[in-house]
Design goal:
single chain, alpha+beta, four-stranded mixed β-sheet, three-stranded antiparallel β-sheet, 27% helix
Length: 156
């Protein structure tokens, strides 16, 4: 595995279509909406180093960073907006943006002005992973530098 951001690969439209989006709302105070994006394991893609390089490129296009030890998440600035029921991520330096369909409940919550945390996992995450697997993935990588994050509030 890569130990630092030595190699990044600019996201392409085909790479973005492969990503596994998982979203949820943490209703504890303060209420926070999460969008986790990870890459599924893909045989023949070149292994975890290539997947990590792709995900680092994606995170760099969003200006994401590691969350601090005190839990402060870096600002995503204005790279996130809601368009209907789609979360749209503006990717700096890329020819494409990413649009993620969201359910009505998540969308309604985000439109109330709660903080939205966008997280990019550097390790593969299987498609249709059960909630317990996603929770373990997220928690085990939050402070290990294997998830890069940014926070914002929705723009319509």
């Amino acid at each position: 595995m890569l130990s630092a951001a030595h190699l990044t690969i600019e996201p392409t439209a085909s790479m973005l279509r492969l990503l596994v989006p998982v979203y949820w709302v943490d209703r504890r105070d303060p209420v926070t909406a999460y969008l986790l994006l990870a890459h599924p394991p893909v045989p023949g893609l070149g292994g975890t180093n290539v997947i990590e390089a792709r995900m680092r490129g994606f995170a760099a296009a969003l200006h994401l960073a590691e969350p601090s030890r005190d839990g402060v998440v870096p600002s995503l600035h204005r790279r996130f907006l809601m368009h209907g029921t789609h979360a749209v991520l503006g990717l700096d330096g890329c020819q494409v943006d990413m649009s993620v369909p969201m359910d009505e409940q998540w969308t309604r919550t985000v439109r109330t002005g709660v903080q939205v945390v966008v997280a990019v996992g550097l390790d593969p995450l299987p498609r249709a992973a059960p909630r317990s697997t996603v929770a373990a993935y997220f928690e085990s990588r939050w402070y290990s530098g294997r998830i890069l994050t940014g926070a914002t509030r929705a723009r319509a």
